[in-house]
Write a structure and sequence with these properties.
- The chain has helices spanning 2-30, 34-74, 92-108, 113-125, 129-145, 153-156.
- It is mainly α.
- It has 2 domains: 2-74; 92-156, Serine Threonine Protein Phosphatase 5, Tetratricopeptide repeat.
- The protein is elongated and about 65 Å long.
- This is Tetratricopeptide repeat protein.
- Keywords: Membrane, Transmembrane, Transmembrane helix.
- The chain crosses the membrane at residues 7-29, 35-55.
Length: 159
C-alpha cells in the first residue's frame, strides 16, 4: 500500500510538471518566431511521449496486479524462495534454478497466461526486468484474449 501512495504522489507531481510544460509550449507557440514555435512543438511532442509512457506503465501495473489477484485466489502465485543478500540482491544460483523451473512450465503450457505470469516473476527475481516486463505483457495479452486460460486459434473462435 505504501508503494501505491508513492506512485500516486509521483504521478501527481509529474502531471503538474507536464501541465507546466504544456503552458510553456503554448506560450512559445504564440510567439511570432519560427524557432520559438519549433521549440513549442518539440515540447508538446515530449509531453505527448511522456503521457503515453505514463499510461503504458500504469496500465501494465494495474493489469499485472489484477492477474496477480486472480492467481492468488487460485493459489497459483509463485513463491519467492530465493535467498537475498543484505543488500537485497537475489542468490544467483537459486534465482537461475527457479527461473529454469518456470521457463520449463511456460514451454509445457504455452497457451496458459498463468505460466507466462510466473515466468515474468522469475525474470524479475533473476534481475532481468526488461524480459520480465515483456513476459508480463504477453501474459496480459493472452488473458485478455481468453480469460479462461486458452490461447490460440481455438480461443479466437470463442471471442
Amino acid at each position: 500500500m505504501r508503494s501505491k501512495i508513492w506512485v500516486w504522489l509521483f504521478v501527481g507531481v509529474l502531471v503538474i510538471f507536464l501541465g507546466g510544460a504544456v503552458t510553456s509550449a503554448w506560450r512559445f507557440l504564440r510567439i511570432d518566431d519560427p524557432i520559438a514555435r519549433v521549440i513549442g512543438l518539440a515540447v508538446l511532442v515530449i509531453v505527448g511521449v511522456g503521457i503515453w509512457y505514463l499510461y503504458r506503465e500504469l496500465s501494465l501495473a494495474f493489469r499485472s496486479e489484477r492477474l496477480g489477484r486472480i492467481l492468488e485466489a487460485e493459489g497459483g502465485l509463485p513463491e519467492d524462495t530465493v535467498e537475498r543478500s543484505p543488500a537485497g540482491r537475489p542468490d544467483k544460483g537459486q534465482a537461475d534454478e527457479q527461473f529454469a523451473r518456470y521457463a520449463a512450465e511456460a514451454e509445457q503450457a504455452p497457451e496458459d497466461w498463468r505460466s507466462w505470469f510466473r515466468l515474468a516473476i522469475a525474470y524479475d527475481i533473476a534481475s532481468d526486468r526488461r524480459r520480465g516486463r515483456a513476459m508480463m505483457r504477453r501474459a496480459i495479452r493472452m488473458e485478455r484474449v481468453a480469460p479462461d486460460g486458452a490461447y490460440g486459434p481455438e480461443a479466437e473462435g470463442r471471442s
